[in-house]
Amino acid sequence: MKNADNHHCRNPHQLPVKVCAHCHKSFTWRRKWARAWAEVKFCSDRCRAAHKRLPPANLCAAGAVDDEF
Ligand SMILES: [Zn+2]
Predict the structure, then answer these.
(1) How many CB atoms lie within 10 A of CB 14?
(2) Best CA proximity match to 50, nearest among 40, 38, 42
(3) What residues does each domain of the chain span?
(4) Cα distance between residue 22 and residue 42, in whole Å
(5) Amino acid 37: pLDDT
(6) CA torsion 42→32→28→24, rounded to 10°?
(7) Residue 21 C-alpha to ligand 1 middle, in angstroms?
(8) Could you count the other beta carbons within 10 Å of the beta carbon of residue 55?
(9) Which of 20, 22, 30, 59 has a CA that sits 20 to 30 A from residue 37's CA?
(10) Could you tell me the CA-to-CA distances from 13 to 6, 9, 45, 51 in Å, in that order?
(11) Is there a contact between 27 and 43 (Cβ–Cβ < 8 Å)?
């Protein structure tokens, strides 16, 4: 957990930021996560549900494999 670089443009309240374990986008603290923020891994219920069905490796597998040099 780093608290040093919280200079995100869309984060005026200096809220904690995490990266979604499924879509890899950053998301900020929400009030509904106040009690369980340490355990939050996904930006939304959709990602949490999708992650159970679809491992993250499948997200990039389509285009990334051909470019190995
Ligand atoms: Zn997500």
Answers:
(1) 12
(2) 42
(3) 17-63
(4) 6
(5) 96
(6) 10
(7) 7
(8) 10
(9) 59
(10) 10, 10, 23, 29
(11) yes
pLDDT at 51: 92
Q: Would you state the structure tokens that stand for residue 17, as one six-digit string?
A: 């930021």
Dump the DSSP string for 2-68.
--S----TT-TT---EEE-TTT--EEE--GGGTTTGGG---SSHHHHHHHHHS-THHHHHHHHGGG-
42's CB contacts (< 8 A; 6+ apart) are 20, 21, 22, 48, 51
What's the 57 CA to ligand 1 centre distance in angstroms?
Answer: 14
Return the pLDDT at 38: 95
> What protein residues have CB closer than 5 angstroms to ion ligand 1?
20, 22-23, 43, 47
Q: What is the mean pLDDT of the chain?
A: 79
Q: Would you state the pLDDT for residue 50?
A: 92
